[in-house]
Amino acid sequence: MTKAKNIAVHKIDKSIWHLQDSDRILKRGPNVKVAEAEALRFIASSTHVPVPEVFGAYEKDGFGNIFMSRVIGTPLHDVLHTFDEAQVERVTTQLSGFVQSWMGLRGDFFGSMGFEPCRDVFFQHLPAANMPDREYGPFRSRTEYCNGLIDALRNSRPYGRFDANDAHQIERIQRLGDGCAVFCHGDLTPDNILIDDQLNVVAILDMGVSGFSIPEREYFEAKSRARNSLWSSMID
After folding, report:
1. SS3 state at 143
2. What's the pTM?
3. Residues 1-23: tens digit of each pLDDT
4. Residue 214 lies in a domain
5. Which residues form the domain of 44?
6. Do the bridges between strand 211-213 and strand 201-204 make them parallel or antiparallel, or are there none, so unpaired?
C-alpha cells in the first residue's frame, strides 16, 4: 500500500490507515464489517452526531474495508486528565445529547445494521468444550433476543448444562419481557471520541459493534469498559 500510514498499530485485530494521497482513512481487518459503514451513514443521515463520512465499504477474503473521511481532532482519552470541572461539564453535555439522539432511533429488529447478527457484549464468549462456535441474531423481538441470551449462556457452559446460579439468571432474563429496539454505539470510550481545541466533540468513532439493541445496553457497555474514574462519573 503506497503512501499510506498505519495510525493504529496498537489495534489487535485491525489497522487504520491514513491514505495520504487522498487524505482519507481506510479501516481494514477481519472483524471490520460493512454493517459499521451502514451504521455511520445511518447516524449521519438521521442525527446531528458528528461521524466520519463513508465513501465506500466492502468485505473480501475474510477482511472488511471501509473508506472514510479523516477527521482532525484529539482523542478525549489523551486530554481528559487535564480537564477542570467546567470542561468536564462542557464535554459531558455534548455527549449526553448525542447519546440521547441516537438512542431515540428505533429499529424493527435486534442486531447489526443490515439485519446482521448482534455484536452486543452479552453474546461475545468463547464456546465451552463440545459446544459450537456461533453468532446470535438478528432477532425480530425482545422475546427472541432474551431467548438468544439464554442460548448464549448455554453455549458457554460445558456440554450446555446449567447450574443453580444459571437457573436464577435465566429466570431474571425471562422476566425482562418485551420492549423496543434502540440504536446503541456499544463501545463509547474516550478513545473513540475526538475533540478540538475549543472542546467541541468533532467525531464519534468506531461503530464496529453498534446496532439495534435493548436500551440498557449502552450504559452497561460504556460503564463496564470504563477504566478511568472521571470517565466513569461522566457516564453516570
Report:
1. helix
2. 0.91
3. 558 787 776 666 568 988 988 88
4. no
5. 4-69
6. unpaired
